Amino acid sequence: MMVQRWNKKRAHFPLIVFLFGLFILSSILYNERSIRQIHQNPDHNDGQRHQDSITSTTMKLPSRPNRVPEVLDRFTTCNSTVKYSGRKGWWADSKPGPDRRRGPSERCDVFSGKWAFDNTSYPLYNESHCPYMSDQLACHKHGRSDLGYQYWRWQPHYCNLKRWNVNEMWEKLRGKRLMFVGDSLNRGQWISMVCLLQSVIPADKRSMSPNAPLTIFRAEEYNATIEFLWAPLLVESNSDDPVNHRLDERIMRPDSVLKHASQWEHADILVFNTYLWWRQGPVKLLWSTEENRVCEELDGLGAMELAMEAWANWVATKADPLKKIFFVTMSPTHLWSREWKPGSEGNCYDEKTPIDDESYWGSGSDLPTMRMVEKVVGRLGSKVTVLNITQLSEYRKDGHPSIYRKFWEALGPKQLSNPASYSDCIHWCLPGVPDVWNELLFHFL
Q1: Which residues lie below 8 Å from residue 158, measured CB to CB, with a gap of 6+?
Q2: CA dihedral 139, 119, 130, 180 (to 10 degrees)
């Protein structure tokens, strides 16, 4: 169902832009500190604990609840917490589907290649010319003088990506809703897509509605929208407020995507992601059938698998076969320079060029998680197209904001004297790496 057209007067446009910027400023990285902390103390036994908890108990499928469970919010608490029982959700079919949907160049792996410097064709837009740019991603605006990070083109080894064409993309979107669903990394990809497309739409024919948790960019003449839905765990959780989600414990319903699905089910093209939020330690599980708020505790990888299976169940049983669904793999971090420069003790700060070792794989990308996602998504067959952005993004240690962004909290003298100590090596500058993710999306559309 297409959202209603914008009928605001043009004179209100600067106010809308200001409100949108304020919304993004207050929400995109509110939880960044805890993400950085979990990366600084990674638990390399996470996958083994997950395996032990899953295999230790023989499970039966639960009966469907007869009541409507309460909606989780940031005030939700557990009355008590017990060890994970091994319970699974509804989706028990382990048989893989037919071959995963592929794009037009199926003989070529567009995700395998190298970065080529190209200051003729790139960047695809100017940072200062996009009124919807986020201050957390506008690196040049916030002092980054080396603009080399904007000039890299992804070159597959044995073929070429479809060349970006803004008018062709709008024609693909005519009369449709394109929705990105996930966390702040997916929000960055959404902002990238808006910046890639907005320049050809007259200012009085476009609008941005910062209606959290669903934010919508409208292009009136194409009767199209580009939307972002904040759902960092995909399933319902107490972290679903796009601003107030800095909580002591994560509580989720591992068997329910109903709240979010009521928003995304009407979109024509869906782009999902989830990863970093599962790297922040154990998660509390509050099943829909639980009436006394007794939670079970499970490690991040195990909890993510339950959430992925709940999402996959929706895709397999509820999604319109004509709907185009994409899943974006994990976005890597670059928190330890010793991984690409042995003997050093820095991070992404002051990095200016990509990694040229094609075998490079950093600790920020968890292989057990990658294998779990491949297993779950593989069972969906042609219903989902995977955008495997992990390896190509691994090379881009130079593409993060580091210190060149708007920070939520004031920086003290100790931090300012040591830039690496507060560098953002998680998110990505724009223009930059997420633009290539969207070129891949365009390629497969």
Answers
A1: 108, 109
A2: -80
Active site residue 146: no
Longest dimension (CA), the chain: 63
Beta bridge partners of 206: 219
- β-strand partners of 208: 217
Report the distance separating Cα 221 and Cα 214, nearest Å.
22
For 382-424, the pLDDT digits (tens) are 999 999 999 999 999 999 999 999 987 888 888 888 999 999 9
Check 365, 424, 435, 443 and give the catalytic one.
424
Q: Kindly state the tokens that stand for 209.
A: 């509605």
Q: Which of 184, 237, 239, 402 is catalytic?
A: 184
Catalytic residue among 39, 140, 427, 443: 427
Active-site residue 424, yes or no?
yes
Q: Is 204 a catalytic residue?
A: no
DSSP for residue 425: -
Instruction: Give residue-wise pLDDT tens across range 349-381.
Output: 999 999 999 999 999 999 999 999 999 999 999
Residue at token pair 């600790």? 363
- Cα distance between residue 287 and residue 294, in whole Å: 9
Q: Is the peptide bond before 123 cis (omega within 30 degrees of 0)?
A: yes
Specify the residue for token string 């993060």.
Answer: 400
Instruction: Indicate the helix (H) or strand (E) that contains 177.
Output: strand 177-182
Return d(Cα 33, Cα 1) in angstroms, integer.
38
